[in-house]
Structure formats: structure tokens, C-alpha cells
């Protein structure tokens, strides 16, 4: 039973994480408030493709790579 509950909790956390990055308004602290030059430099450092991608997608991938979820 504990494994099932753990799975439900993990699914809930993943849904909340994804919802955070659904819009620029909800992810403001990590997207719009983050200076572009620092974001792009940091993304390149972690081999994250930036060309043609929305800023919120770049931030989300960076957050995941740094252990945010």
C-alpha cells in the first residue's frame, strides 16, 4: 500500500511541477525575472539547446537538470 501512496504523491508533485511552467505568470520567478544573458550562459554550460525555444522551456529543463524535480 505504501508503494501505491508514494506513486500517487510523486504523480501529484510532477503535475504541480508541470503546472508551474504552464505559463510565464506562474513561473515568473524563474522565467521573466531571470536575466536573459545569465539564463543563456547557464543553459549552454549544461548543454541545453536554446535556439528557438521559449524561455520557460529552457528554465524548466535547467531546473530538471539541476535536480529540481
What is the N-to-C order of secondary-structure elements (H for helix, E for strand)?
A: HHH
Structural class: mainly alpha
Q: Care to count the β-strands?
A: 0
Helical percentage: 55-70%
Radius of gyration: 14 Å
Strand content bin: under 5%
Please describe the biggest sheet, giving its number of strands, its sense, and whether it closes into a barrel: none
Task: Give the overall pLDDT as a whole number.
Answer: 86
Q: How many helix segments?
A: 3
The rough form would be described as elongated
Distance between the terminal alpha carbons, to the nearest Å?
Answer: 24 Å
Structural key phrases:
0% strand, 69 residues, elongated, mainly alpha
Task: Explain this structure.
The structure is a single chain. With 69 residues, the chain is mainly α. The protein has one domain (2-65). Helix content is 58%, strand content 0%. It contains three helices and no strands. The chain has helices spanning 2-20, 36-45, 55-65. Helix 2 (36-45) crosses helix 3 (55-65). The protein starts with a helix and ends with a helix.
Furnish the topology, listing elements before pairings:
Elements: H1 2-20, H2 36-45, H3 55-65
Helix pairs in contact: 2-3
Amino acid at each position: 500500500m505504501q508503494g501505491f501512496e508514494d506513486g500517487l504523491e510523486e504523480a501529484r508533485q510532477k503535475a504541480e511541477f508541470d503546472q508551474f511552467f504552464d505559463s510565464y505568470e506562474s513561473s515568473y520567478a524563474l522565467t521573466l525575472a531571470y536575466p536573459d544573458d545569465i539564463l543563456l550562459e547557464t543553459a549552454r554550460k549544461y548543454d541545453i539547446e536554446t535556439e528557438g525555444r521559449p524561455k520557460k522551456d529552457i528554465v524548466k529543463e535547467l531546473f530538471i537538470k539541476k535536480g529540481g524535480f
